[in-house]
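In the laboratory, one determines a bound structure by crystallizing the protein with its ligand and collecting diffraction data. In a computational setting the workflow is compressed into a single prediction: the sequence and the ligand go in, and a structural description comes out. We illustrate the idea with 3-iodo-tyrosine.
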Amino acid sequence: MASYKTIPYKGEAYDEKELIAKSVEYYNWMEKRRTVRDFSEQPVPLEVIQKIVLSASTAPSGAHKQPWSFCVVSNPEIKKKIRQAAEKEEKESYNGRMTQEWLEDLAPLGTDWQKPFLETTPYLIIVFKRIYELKGEVKRNNYYVSESVGIACGFLLTAIHNAGLVALTHTPSPMNFLSKLLNRPENERPFLLIPVGYPAVNALVPDLRRKDLDEVLFLYD
Ligand code: IYR
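The predicted complex, in structure-token form:
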């Protein structure tokens, strides 16, 4: 079995003071990230999206298989088809498929079946998970696919935030129409649909509260 040659790890090391300052600074910056639903139509250079996708693709993955495909849609006709198909599914979901409890949980966010951002945002990034690899006719396994792709999407959202752009993690359900519309191979399944762009000038976001540390951190020392 071939194995990787090894190379020195090139990370940065900080003293304790710097370490604390870095972690505080990073948290304060991350805390500003918000899911935005009001996008501007202002174009974004493709190069930015390419770098954001490369950043996402640095995520760790099972057996380093990088089991993800990022489809970047800017074509207006394809965006229109995606919007139509997504709204059709969402309409059915909001009008019967979702439970009363689910609708109540969502009500404070004010979402509904209409998804204009699917057409107005400069880019839709549709993330697919590759449940296996296809080398010609031969199938090779991927591992921890949802975990790997989930982490990559986290990296993607962070890279978008770092660029000063905004995103929405949209999950039309069911979303198999995306495989058809984008003509994806049989080893791929849609994972997340992420519109990316600048926020609208007067974009509003819900004034929500995030859990405190003692609600999410449990120390065993
Ligand atoms: N997919 C629907 C519903 C929805 C579900 C959850 I959970 C959300 O946090 C937000 C929306 C939609 O996109 O509207």
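The longest strand covers residues 188-197. Keep in mind that any predicted model is a hypothesis to be tested, not a measurement.
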